[in-house]
Amino acid sequence: MSKLPIFSQLFAKSPVQPIQKHMKAAYECASHLPEFFEAVLDDDWKKAKKIGTKIRILESDADDLKRSIRLNLPRSLFMPVSRTDLLELVQAQDKIPNRTKDVVGLTLSRHMQFPSELGPLIIELASKTVSASQLAFEALKELDELFHSGFSGSEIDLITGMLAELNDVEHETDVLQGKLRDAFFSIEKDLNPVDVMFFYRMIEWIGEIADNSQSVGNRLLYLIAK
């Protein structure tokens, strides 16, 4: 196979769009969590499985995009940030759909029945988690402008403001997790001990999706700081 001309290698296309596309798939995957749990709480397992299939497809799409980025990310010295930094950003993004798939897989495989009185808190936590991933996605949408501006100017102020909001939302998910654990603790003695164990794991995993979104924000801040 013939190699690309040296100038084509040095001035390779910006890798931003594929990374943004990957984050879009990650966000879309997480965005289905509230409707998934609504179906589960309604005992509509047919609908839950249909949404679960959609989530697994989006997670698989994200995996394909991640592999493509790893294979095709330019090694040019003329990129404003290092290849390693961008790959670490993609890795942080990829944890969002991965954990979303884990949540759905556990729920479906165990046919988990959640106490109805905890339903509103579960939906609120899932929705707040989606808000965190959406903010991370919105911040990533500005990354191409950062490249064009040479990582300076008002674009940095815009992104840092969005990431500060992301941190606030992630904190709100921590608070909701605490409320959900407290509410569950008050009734856990009446439930199957194995179900109790997996319910606490579920609370932790949903919160981790917001944590992963915050990690994406932290990687962006690292890029800006450099």
SSE string, helices as H and strands as E? HHHHHHHHH
Biggest sheet architecture: none
Radius of gyration from CA coordinates? 20 Å
Write the CATH architecture name: Up-down Bundle
Question: Which structural class fits the helix and strand makeup?
Answer: mainly alpha
**First and last CA, distance:** 37 Å
Count of folded domains: 1
Briefly, what CATH class? Mainly Alpha
**What is the arithmetic mean of pLDDT?**
88
Q: Please count the helical segments.
A: 9
Number-wise, the strands total: 0
Content of β-strand: under 5%
Estimated helix fraction: over 70%
CATH homologous superfamily identity: Phosphate transport system protein phou homolog 2, domain 2
CATH fold name? Methane Monooxygenase Hydroxylase, Chain G, domain 1
Looking at the structure, what is the overall shape?
A: elongated
| Poorly predicted spans | 1-12
Q: In brief, what are we looking at here?
A:
The chain is an all-alpha fold and 226 residues long.
Can you describe what's shown?
The chain has a single domain, classed as Phosphate transport system protein phou homolog 2, domain 2 (Methane Monooxygenase Hydroxylase, Chain G, domain 1). It is mainly α and 226 residues long. The protein starts with 5 loop residues before the first helix and ends with a helix. The longest helix is centred in the last third of the chain and has 33 residues.
